[in-house]
Amino acid sequence: MILCEEDALCWLAAQIDHTREFNICVARDQMVDRGMMLWQRQKRSSPINPLKITFLGESGIDTGALRVEFLTEMVSGIEIRLFEGQEGKGKIPKYSLNYLDNGLFRVAGEVFAVSLAQGGPAPCFLQEWCYKYLATGELIDVTKETVFDLELSPLIEKIEEAEDITAFTGDILDCGYTGQINVESKANIIRTILLHATTKRTPMLNHLRQGLDVYDFLKVLEANPEHCRGLFVAGTVEEVDSHYIVSSLSPEFSTSTVKQLKEKAILNYFQDFLLELEDTDSEDQDSLTVPKVMQWLTGQSHRHLRLCDRQGFRIVVSFEHDCLVHMPEHTVCFPIVSACTRTITFPAAHLNSFEEFKQNMFVAMRCGGEFHRV
Question: What is the pLDDT of residues 234-251, one digit of tens each?
Fold first, then answer.
């Protein structure tokens, strides 16, 4: 029985077939495009099996972190490539018949289902009407308040404000309207534009539904739309923040009081580093963010979807004080991260101030995001 979102996620996880593995070997470059192509070409198993990821040229063995990082990048990349919308208003499928013909929306649905079942992020960026279509297969609650189309919503606003709408005759006819074009018909015209914006995307949403059904998930969506809504609708999932990471730290302090003082100072630097990233308002997609720090540490940039996973989430923090003893000639070393075991080791000898810590972290994250340690 599904009584909440947690139950739906646990039900999904229970549907995984462990008799085989769904193996994908992909390069980090063009991960989304290559990932979707390789996903489609896999013949020996299916997405119903446990996903196992190998990154080309890296020695990391997938015990969970590689899979989660792959799913994180795929869900984010699919959102950018196959969906469109405005920040804060949710997104809708792009009207692309070649994407549809190539089966990309079906693959996207499978990726979303696997991500929900196997520890990845939720695709919570859809507009409400899109989710209701996924859950029911019908267009429900199609209004100007619930539907936002980058091209047609501005047209609706112009028609609403205009005293003479004949200037928009061509745009109105292109939307399939066949009635009289006058001020008295505004409501019918706007309704037609909304139906045009939504009905032309139903083939894309149907393919998404087919992909989501890889675990027979549609029957859960149809029976429990209110419990699964938070997994798909924009604005329902909180981003990882500094508190989520810092409250999960499990430091292994030294027995020496002097070393402990240094270690606690480093933890303070780490917290200040995260807080500074939170306060930085940058539109640059390549800029560092708190979710990116989370992904660097664990492979995932999202909060854990299941309560049991959130409660058991820990990042082990250790400290290396003797690197200068082992390597007297070196001048700098960087944190060592094991995403699979969720462990980070800070080089205490090189982190004597917040500015040193910040510079060290920036270099480490920009140059050390791959899995080269086993």
Answer: 987 788 999 999 999 999
Q: Write the secondary structure of the chain as one string of H (helix), E (strand) and C (coil).
A: CCCCHHHHHHHHHHCCCCCCCEEEEECCCCHHHHHHHHHHHCCCCCCCCCEEEEECCCCCCCCCHHHHHHHHHHHHHHHHHHEEECCCCCEEECCCHHHHHCCHHHHHHHHHHHHHHCCCCCCCCECHHHHHHHHHCCCCCCCCCCCCCCCHHHHHHHHHHCCCCHHHHHHHHHCCCCCCCCHHHHHHHHHHHHHHHHHCCHHHHHHHHHHHHHHCHHHHHHHCHHHHHHHCECCCCCECCHHHHHCCEEECCCCCHHHHHHHHHHHHHHHHHHHHHHHCCCCCCCCCCHHHHHHHHHCCCECCCCHHHHHCCCEEEEEECCHHHHCCCCCCCCCEEECCCCEEEEEHHHCCCHHHHHHHHHHHHHHCCCCCCC
- 51-60, 151-160, 181-190: least confidently modelled range: 51-60
The proportion of the chain whose per-residue pLDDT surpasses 70, expressed as a percent, equals: 97
Reported pTM: 0.86
